[in-house]
Structure formats: structure tokens, C-alpha cells
Amino acid sequence: MAKPITSIKKYEASREEQIEKDFEEVKAAIADNKTAILKGIDLLKALEESETLDAATAFTYKRKEILANIVEEINRDMYTGILENIPEIVYLLGDLDLKTVRDVTSKLNQGMEEMNAAASSKEKTSVLDLAKALKDPEINRSITMLMNFLKGMGRN
Predict the structure, then answer these.
(1) CA separation for the pair 83, 127 (Å, rounded)
(2) What is the Cα–Cα distance from 44 to 53, expressed in whole angstroms?
(3) Which of 6, 13, 93, 110 lies in disulfide reach of 17, CB 3.0 to 4.6 Å?
(4) Alpha helices, H only, 50-97
(5) What residues have CB less than 8 Å from 50, skipping those under 6 apart?
(6) Span of 6-15, 87-96, 104-113, 135-144 with lowest mean pLDDT
(7) pLDDT-based confidence at 66, cuts 50/70/90?
(8) Residue-wise pLDDT tens digits, 23-52
(9) 3-class secondary structure per residue, the chain
(10) What is the pLDDT of residue 1?
């Protein structure tokens, strides 16, 4: 009869064999993720060209000191009001109709451009000029909008 097996030796690959196996695994992963790797290289190149990579590296190494400085700066009394109002500002932004705000802002910018273009004029406006201006559809529309704005603002 044969002797019973009392010990089993597990096959251990040599260092060279393990390196070769790992290299093949990495090669397969590179082939499977070629597009992502190339995009990553492009991103790293852009970060390097803009010198952002150096800043990110420095931030990573000194993050504890930097964050401690930021926290120390924010803890100053002059920022207390801002920090207390942040939740209210967030709620306000949530309540705003951004499309309307964008439209009004665009109209404000157009009005300021017209105002700046006419700012060099030394002409005076008379009461008769104001009455004539009301016949201009753009001016009439603007005055009507302002009156409606004031009416809406005055409501409870």
C-alpha cells in the first residue's frame, strides 16, 4: 500500500514568473481601458501645462497645514455674519426664478449700454421731452414694467 500524503506543498511561482504574470495582467487592463487612459494622460498634460498639477501636488503634501489655515481664517469674527447667512442665501437662490433673473439682467445690461452711450451728451430733458418719450414703445414698455415691479414690490 502507498503511504498517505501528510503534507501538501503549494506551488509558489518564482519572482520572475510573478512579474511576468503581473505584467500580462496590467497589459490586459491597459488594453481594456485604452480610451480612459488616453483621456487621463490628456488631463494630466493639461494640468501640467496650466501649472495646476504642481499646485495640486503641493496642496496634497501640505493639505493639513492649508486646511488649518483656512479654518483659522474662517473662524475670525468678521466672517461670522457671512457664515450665519449662508443657509438663507442658499434658500433664496432656491426660490429665485433664474430664467426671469437672467432676462432682467440682460435688459439691465442693455439699458446700461444705452445709458453709457448717451452719457457724454450734455442735453437736458424737459417735461415736454418726457411726454414725447412716452410715445416711444420701448420707453413706454420699460416704464410700464417699472410701475408693475413697484406695484408687486409694494404688495404684502
Answers:
(1) 49
(2) 7
(3) 13
(4) 52-61, 63-74, 80-95
(5) none
(6) 6-15
(7) very high
(8) 999 999 999 999 999 999 999 999 999 999
(9) CCCCCCCCCCCCCCHHHHHHHHHHHHHHHHHHCHHHHHHHHHHHHHHHHCCHHHHHHHHHHCHHHHHHHHHHHHCCHHHHHHHHHHHHHHHHHHHCCHHHHHHHHHHHHHHHHHHHHHCCCCCCCCHHHHHHHCCCHHHHHHHHHHHHHHHHHHCC
(10) 67
| Length of the chain in terms of residues written | 156
As given in the structure block, the three cell numbers for residue 102 are: 437672467
Per-residue CA distances from 72 to 66, 75, 76, 78 (Å):
10, 5, 7, 12
How far, in Å, CA of 115 to CA of 132, rounded? 18
What is the number of alpha carbons within 13 Å of residue 125 lying toward its C-beta?
A: 8
Identify residue 52 by its one-letter amino acid code. Answer: T
Which positions ≥6 away from 142 have C-beta within 8 Å?
A: 111
The three grid cell numbers given for residue 107, joined into one nine-digit string: 435688459
